[in-house]
Each structure stands twice: as structure tokens, then as C-alpha cells.
């Protein structure tokens, strides 16, 4: 999915919601555990329930890899299911990869080259620590996206990301500035945590046009209105992720209904924020 | 495998060689392509040929993930094979993972919790960008190791890792200093590229006791003697990795013999360097 298609999808659904499929087997409703593949069953029903309100799905690879081959089968089935509605949603492999060039090329094939790996995500999250040659192999795939970590939503973000250099530029700002030479707003986004909403203004000065993937709204406590205030552009320019607050809105048989309600509520707020900005 | 066992293994084999299993299906000898699982067949013969000279094996996850379910089966069979010689080698998942706490816990299970994922590596490589809470979940597993990226062997290492802060401390030095509060020399190592051998002296001042995993000797051009000169401790304190120079020493039917010769040649040099240091 290219940038124009994504922007059109956002305007059409009046939403910039991304649902994170952090589908923890130990947290899904008990009654699903009898099915052949409980995690896929869970994901399928979450997708059905939330698709009207959602422009992107973001499986978190760790929750599938932790279950070995069975977990990867659940993920493959989930992605095959999303393939049937591929014009209705953008897909992100939340994998935080990044290695030397020939290795990053292999990681890119793992997520983008369906003939090789079975997966055909639109985007993958990448860690910037190893620099340009660890990122550029992902950008060599046409119509695919890198979502580079800049300022994350966790406490550990303050260990290194906010350290300044002698000119006062923080590491996350250096990542934003330097990496703009590697790709464009048409194939790169940045991860910026909602728990750092006021720092979004600083981020937007450096990357006025790039989409930002914003985790941390919901379970982690970030505010949607603040994210829009500091981060929204005339193209929207945001994908706001929620995972646990939607997936585990209920632990009972009504989980899908409650997930739809939670996603619907976020979408309604997003619609208001987009109208205020004159985007729709 | 704990630190003492690793040190004993190094002294007993008179080697600190780690063989990187970057087993690229497109590069393995043609005659293996007829077998059921060519990559596993390749790995098995490489392991048989190099085990006398080698103290660690380091599968590079990207080369398995790029082949989807078939690749992960090759890796699982390889690790089951290494399990049969587990007292003779340390195993490293070269995966460069790292995410917020609850996600890093899942990644740790993917590599350390055999009952959950099928894998029981001794160690996993982790990227430091997201800070303490992205690393500590791996350290919660008893008798398992984190190998944290500090100064990598690629060109992109100069994009961020060597940037100084206002006090002149470079990012990789800050990573080394800060992360010592998270673990100990008994459960953490650091990645330091051999292509930065002279910077090893700087690294050793900051982490005098930790093991260093050193890639970049061989295909990437680093020198073993320089690595020993600047990085070796009285416990050795080094695992030097070679991948392509051993795996692809020959593309013909003699690939295992040539791999053994290359590993043996490196072991012989390592033995000399350890004798010079008085370790053996």
C-alpha cells in the first residue's frame, strides 16, 4: 500500500487507528482454547470486529515467536486472512529488526517476500542503532515501508534516546535528521511514543511530512488529543496504535463486541480530531 | 552454560572461535540441494567438521526467517543437533531483538524457553536502543545470557554509535557504562566489531571482565592478532566469530573439509595468542 492509498483509507474510514495484535495465548478468552488454533481464532474475530474502525493491523512478532512453530502458523493464518481485506488495511510487522546489510536483506525477505517466507507485510519496524546499511536493505523493496524507532514509549527511552550530543541534539533527533537521507515520506515512518506527547512538537519540526506510528495510547497512558495536537499534519500523518486496551477489553465471550466498542470509541474521537484539523 | 564452564571449554579446546551459521540457501553447495532439508544437512556437516576447533555456534536468525516455516524447521533441527553436543559448545541466537518489557519477555521465551518455543539457546543478541526495560527481561532467565550491541562492525556504526555527548562520551561507551548496572559479567556480553580493533582498548577500560563477542574477522577484514592484543583478558574474555570465511570456504563437495581447515587454522592462531597471554 502506498502513501496516497493510506491517506485515502484514513479519510474514508475517518480513522487513524492501528490495532496491535499482541495476541498473548495466556490472556485470550478461555472458551477459545478448544479451537484448533486459538490465537488465530482470536485474531480473526478481533479483525472482523474492528475492521470498520481500523486502518492498520500490527502483529507483534514476539508473541508468535514465543510459541515457536505453532505461533508462526497462527501468524501466517492471520496474515492470509488480512490478505482477503488488503485494500482495507495497512499491515505492520512489529519486529524491531536491524543488522548488517546482507542480514537486513534477509530480514526484509522474511517480512516482504511472500514467495520466500510466506509473508507480505506493508511495513516492518526497524531499530536504528546499527545505522544506514542496516536500514537501507528494507527500503530496496518497492512499495514497502520502514518504520524506524525514534522515541519509544517505555521508561528505557531515557537511557539513550534522549542523550544530547555536544551541540545539544538528542539521539532521537539525530536519528530523525540523519535517516531522512536514507528514505522519503513515501517509504519511511517513525515510531514516536504517545507517552512523550509534548516531545511530538520537537519531532514534527524535524519530520514535517513523515507518518508517525504512535504507540502508548491506552494501556500505557498516552492521550489521543495530545498526540493529535502535537503530531497531526494536513494529511493526518499519524497511525495511533492500541493493543491491550482493545484486545483484552473483555476476557469473556463478549470480547469481540467489547473490542469493537473500544475501537469504535477511539475512531469516534479520531474523527472529531480530523474534522477539527479540516482533514475530513 | 555458565561463565566458568565457558572459560573451561575455551581452555580445553584452546580456542575462542564462534562459527556463525549464516546458512544462505543460495550459497550452499549444489549437491546438497537434493536432500530433504539442505540447510540442515549443510549445518550438520559444518558442525561435525568444525566442532573440534569451535567453542560456540551462532545461527543468524535472519537467514532462517527469510525462508519462513521451512527455514525455522531447519533451525530447529540444527539446534536439536547441537543439543546432543551441548557440553562442547555455547549457542547464540543472533537475533538483535529488543522491545518494551512485556514484549522482550516474549522474545526471551522464543529463545530460552524450550517448552514454549522449542528453542534453548544459551544467549541472544539484543539491541540497546530502547534501554533497560527492553534488556532486563532476558536477564531474568537463569543461566542465560544477553549479548548487547555496543560497537558493531559495519559502516553504519559511525551514524550513531560513535556520536559523543556533551562530556565527550560516545554512545557505545554510554551503552557499556549504563548497562553494567543491569547485569553482570556472568550473564552479559557485548558485541564489539573486529573492524574497530583499536577501539577495543577503549572498550576494555570500561568493561574489564565481560566477554566480548567479536564479529568482523574474516570476510569483513578484521585481524585476530589485533583483537587479542586489545581485547583479551586473563580469562580470554573473547568469542571471535567467523561466518562466511568458514561456511563458504569451498562451494564444492569438499566444503566441510575446507571449513574444518579454515576453522583449524583460526584455532591454531588462537592457541598461540592464548599461550602468549599465559591463559593455557
Overall number of structural domains of chain A: 1
Q: Rounded to an integer, what's the Rg of chain A over CA atoms?
A: 18 Å
What is the annotated CATH architecture of chain A? Alpha-Beta Barrel
Strands side by side in the biggest sheet of chain A: 1-2-3-4-5-6-7-8
Question: Average pLDDT of chain A, to the nearest integer?
Answer: 96
The largest β sheet of chain A comes out as: 8 strands, parallel, barrel
What's the oligomerization state? homodimer
% residues in beta strands of chain A: 15-25%
- End-to-end distance of chain A: 21 Å
CATH fold-level name of chain A: TIM Barrel
Helix share bin of chain A: 40-55%
Number of helices of chain A: 13
Uncertain residue ranges of chain A = none
What do these coordinates show?
The structure is a homodimer of 280-residue chains. The model of chain A has no long low-confidence stretch (mean pLDDT 96). Chain A has a single domain (3-276), classed as TIM Barrel (Alpha-Beta Barrel). The first copy, chain A, has 13 helices and 8 strands. The longest helix of chain A is centred in the last third of the chain and has 22 residues, at 255-276. Chain A has 280 residues and is α/β, with parallel strands linked by helices. At the A-B interface, helix 3, helix 4, strand 3, helix 5 and helix 7 of A face helix 3, helix 4, strand 3, helix 5 and helix 7 of B.
Amino acid at each position: 500500500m502506498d502513501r496516497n492509498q493510506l491517506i485515502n483509507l484514513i479519510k474514508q474510514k475517518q480513522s487513524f487507528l492501528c490495532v496491535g495484535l499482541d495476541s498473548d495465548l495466556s490472556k485470550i478468552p478461555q472458551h477459545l482454547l478448544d479451537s484448533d488454533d486459538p490465537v488465530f481464532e482470536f485474531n480473526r474475530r478481533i479483525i472482523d470486529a474492528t475492521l470498520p474502525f481500523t486502518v492498520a493491523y500490527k502483529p507483534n512478532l514476539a508473541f508468535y515467536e514465543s510459541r515457536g512453530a505453532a505461533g508462526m502458523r497462527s501468524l501466517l493464518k492471520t496474515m492470509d486472512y488480512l490478505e482477503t481485506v488488503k485494500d482495507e488495511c495497512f499491515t505492520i510487522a512489529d519486529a524491531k529488526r536491524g543488522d548488517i546489510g546482507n542480514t537486513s536483506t534477509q530480514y526484509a525477505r522474511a517480512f516482504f517476500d511472500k514467495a520466500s517466507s510466506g509473508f507480505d507485510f506493508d511495513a516492518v519496524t526497524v531499530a536504528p542503532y546499527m545505522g544506514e546499511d542496516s536500514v537501507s536493505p528494507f527500503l530496496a523493496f518497492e512499495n514497502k515501508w520502514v518504520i524506524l524507532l525514534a522515541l519509544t514509549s517505555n521508561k528505557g527511552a531515557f537511557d539513550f534516546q534522549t542523550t544530547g550530543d555536544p551541540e545539544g541534539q538528542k539521539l532521537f533527533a539525530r536519528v530523525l535528521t540523519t535517516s531522512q537521507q536514507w528514505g522519503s515520506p513515501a517509504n519511511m515512518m517513525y515510531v514516536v511514543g504517545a507517552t512523550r506527547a509534548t516531545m511530538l512538537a520537537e519531532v514534527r519540526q524535524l519530520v514535517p511530512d513523515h507518518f508517525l506510528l504512535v504507540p502508548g495510547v491506552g494501556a500505557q497512558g498516552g492521550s489521543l488529543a495530545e498526540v493529535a495536537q502535537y503530531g497531526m499534519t494536513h494529511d493526518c500523518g499519524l497511525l495511533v496504535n492500541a493493543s491491550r486496551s482493545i484486545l483484552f477489553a473483555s476476557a469473556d465471550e463478549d470480547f469481540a463486541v467489547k473490542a469493537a466498542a473500544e475501537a469504535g470509541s477511539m475512531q469516534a474521537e479520531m474523527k472529531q480530531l480530523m474534522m477539527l484539523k479540516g482533514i475530513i
